[in-house]
Design a protein that fits this description.
This protein is an alpha+beta fold. The chain contains 2 helices and 8 strands. Strands 1, 2, 3, 4, 5, 6, 7 and 8 form an 8-stranded antiparallel beta sheet that branches. Strand 7 and strand 8 form a beta hairpin. Helix 1 packs across helix 2.
């Protein structure tokens, strides 16, 4: 399952380092993996990943790709983004996390 998250338009971009730090505060073994095709946040021992959009290390949106059976990891990810002030987005528009 995929979940889109983003910063509200009124907020300045976050750094990927801030996002990874917030995830680690939720006790997640997060690491940034920069590839030529995009930026990813991986979790050691987990299949859930975050594809994070980045320009010069700054980000305003990401897609959480939740692996089956990793509900606790997903809940911790949402908690981290909530603390950073990000919102979710679905076909009906943005919503608070």
């Amino acid at each position: 399952m995929e979940t889109r998250v983003h910063l509200p338009d009124s907020e300045p971009p976050a750094t990927i380092r801030e996002v990874v730090s917030a995830l680690k505060k939720q006790k997640l073994p997060a690491s940034h993996d920069k590839q030529s095709w995009g930026d990813w946040i991986n979790f050691e021992g987990k299949q859930t990943v975050i594809s994070i959009e980045s320009i010069n290390g700054l980000t305003t949106s990401a897609t959480i790709e939740e692996a089956e059976g990793e509900d606790t990891t997903f809940t911790q990810i949402i908690a981290a983004f909530r603390k950073l002030g990000w919102h979710g987005e679905d076909e009906d528009g943005p919503y608070p996390l």
